[in-house]
Structures are given as C-alpha cells and as structure tokens.
What does this fold into?
Amino acid sequence: MQLTLAQIAAATGGRVVGSPATIVDGFANDSRSIAVGECFVAIADQRDGHDFVATAAAAGATAALVARNDDDHDLPLVVVDDPLAALARLATVVRGDRLSGTRVVGVTGSTGKTSTKDLLASALATELRVHANRSSFNNEIGLPVTLLGARDDTEVLVCEMGARVAGNVAALCAVARPEIGVITNIGMAHAEHLGGADGTERVKGELLEALPADGLAGLNADDPVSLRLARRSKAPVATAGRASDATVRIVSATIDGELRCSIRLRTPWGDVESRLGLRGAHQAANAALAATAALHLGVSPAGVAEGLAAARGSSWRMELAHTVDGITILNDAYNANPDSMRAALEAVRDLAVDGRRYAVLGTMRELGADSVAEHRAIGRFAAACGIDHLVVVGDDDEVGGLASGAREAGAAVEQVDDATAALEAVRLRLRAGDALLVKASRAVGLESIALALCAAGADAS
Ligand SMILES: Nc1ncnc2c1ncn2[C@@H]1O[C@H](COP(=O)(O)OP(=O)(O)OP(=O)(O)O)[C@@H](O)[C@H]1O
Ligand SMILES: [Mg+2]
It folds into this structure.
C-alpha cells in the first residue's frame, strides 16, 4: 500500500526530513533485498541499519525510517525515537484504518508454520484477494512489514507468527488483530528459549487469547497439547486431523514416489480431494488445518482442493531434485527440530529409489536439556527409516548422539567437520539411483551440499 511520509510521521510521532508528500510502497529492513519505491527501516539487529541507509538509497529506496540522520545521502526521512517500535505502531494504525475490513489469519505452532501459511494462502487465492508473509517473515519486523505490504483491497491477510520468548505472539497479535488463529502443533522447536514444552504451550496459546468471540481457532486434532489450549479461546474451535471426531477429518492420505501426498478430507462444507503441492506425508496435517481456515472464510471445497495442489513451498524445505547423474536429492536444510527430522527421514524412506539412501545431518539447535538424547533418538530413527549411510557434521555432543544412535541401530556412520567435508564424503559414494537427504538447523548451512550436487544441471521437479 502507498503511504506518504506525512502519514507515516502522523502515525508514529516522527519528524519528516525532506518532502512530506513523498510516497513509499512497502517497507524493508534489508538493504540487499529492498525493492524500488520501498521505505528502508534502519533497525539495529546484528548490524546497525543506520550504516546502510545510503546503500538502500542506491538500491532504489524512496525514503527511510530512522532514529538519526548520520549517513551521506539525500533520501527523505522520517525520524523517530525507535524505528522498530514505529514500524509496529504504523502497522497497528494501518490495520485499524485502511485494513479494517481485512480478515486476518494468524498461524503459529512449533513446526509447519510456513508450510501451513503457504498452503492456506494458495487455497484462499483461488477465490479471494490474499496477502501473506514472504518466506518465514514471522517476527516483530516481518509481521509489520507483511501488513504494510498488503494492498488496500486485501480480503484476507495470512500472518505467520513465530516466538522466541514469552509474549512474542501476544505482541504480534496486538498489531495484526487476527480473527482466525491456527496452531499447527506444539513440540520442541525453540524450546530452550521458551522454557521447555510448557513455555512453548503458553506462548503459542497467546494467539488463542487474542481471538474475538466470533472468530475461529483451528487446532490440530491429533496433538493433545494443542487441544489443551482450546480453553484459552473465546472463539469457537475447529479441529483438523486424523482423529475420528475432527471437524475436518483426514480420511485418507497416500504418499507417492515423488513425495506428493494425496489427501481426502471430510468436512462440514463438503469433501476435499487434493494432491498437495508441498512434499511429505506430514503436509497432510498442515493441509487439513489450512483447509479448515479457508473453508471457514468461504472458499469452496473445489477451490480449496485446487489451491492446496497449486501451493509451492519456500526454499530449502523438502525441495526434491534429480541430478543429471541420476541421484535424487532432498534438500530440507532450511531448519531442523525432532519433529521435522522425523518427517524428513520418513520422506526419504518413502522415496522411490533403486539405490542406497544417504543422509547428511547436523545439529538441531535450541532443544534444551534433553538435546543429546533427542539427537540419539533421531540417529536410531534414521537407521529405522532405511538410511544406509549417515554423514554427521560437526563435533559437538549433539552430533555425537546422532552418530551413536545411528550406529547402535545398524547404520554406517561417518563424522566430518563441516559442510565442505560432508560434500566430499557423499560425492565419493553417490551413484545413479541413490537418494540423499540434507538437513540440520539453519546455522549449519547444509543447503550448500544440495546446491553443489545439483549445480551440474539439476532436473528439479
Ligand atoms: N506438521 C509437520 N510435522 C513435522 N514436520 C513438519 C511439519 N510441517 C512442516 N514440517 C517440516 O518442518 C520444517 C520446517 O517447516 P516450516 O518452514 O513449514 O516450519 P516453520 O514452523 O515455519 O519453521 P520456522 O520456525 O523456521 O519458521 C521443514 O523441514 C518441513 O518439512
Ligand atoms: Mg517459518
């Protein structure tokens, strides 16, 4: 949406330097990915955004929201005390004003937020004007940026909401004011910072507390921890999953050799049959929740089916590619926690391959006290899923747990220092007909292995 600097200053209590009539269309805090016409927001994160105002100007930014004017440029500015707080304030004002008629869906949970958001946005887009966050833009920067990037005539806004500490989701809800809340599941992701499983449950429940009585809470019918949260919702609850009493019930889900899951949902709005656009058997649960929200918002069962099939995933999540050498690569290196590790290992098991199954795995971070035991269990699970040869990356206790678990359960294991060494290790072994999974927490950066193996001319599918 278009905003003038005068409007931004009025909403944030800021001071304009330059022409107040300057128009911006969208906001960004990364000068490397800013689009022409956007407003650069100088936020002090790992680096101070104020050092990049001139770079943003050169990249096409029309204005900047800053706390001080100390760079050499002639970009029009709105100067505020705290650009991050001002961004939230501006988004809150816009939500109550230009987007007051927009219906907002918040999506949170431990695992599968982005997948569910992508499935839901695609299901909604078949019949409604939709705007959703890019990629995993789900925090106190990404959510206001998403909201301010919506067109004025947006009918439904889908906002992923992440949490690192208690209160995060409540703060995001104060800006976005969701009418519908979807919780994918409650598990171990980020458990360390959230105070274990109980803390995770508390912070995800903040979404339900923010819903109005005439809204809707979409919960996972197969996750007892999520269901416990229902009492925190004033809004009626709809459940989705395999359980026989689910509002939206998965009556069948079959996975094919390309990891596409075909599902049939029985719903109060009619049956939905779809071959999902996202890969992996675990997407059935995400799709059932996405369907629940889309059907509630008035999309027809046929529209939902079409949209779920058309969904495209975000990068490095269950990306399947076949190299020219006949090797199948599953790049799920975006992130990892025990639930998503299990889902990915099951996917390798389900792949239609003639040869051997390899996995390069690294640490799952932020798991807290049980971390090594969780890694050992994943090592065992990898062997049970038919991984013939496991390459583990790193030398911490977690990686040791992965290695010993897999060895105990009968897999061959090789331990290497980093992604480069892992690439060399698998390059020596991979033959036509083999499959390889790469997965670890974001910081381990294992996607480089998949990208290098595919670089020789992948046939992505
Ligand atoms: N319901 C699920 N159960 C288990 N694993 C899942 C589920 N949904 C997605 N995944 C897997 O979890 C990983 C992350 O998925 P996704 O990006 O959708 O989650 P997210 O909650 O948005 O993560 P983040 O906290 O990094 O934003 C991927 O490997 C994906 O395949
Ligand atoms: Mg995400």
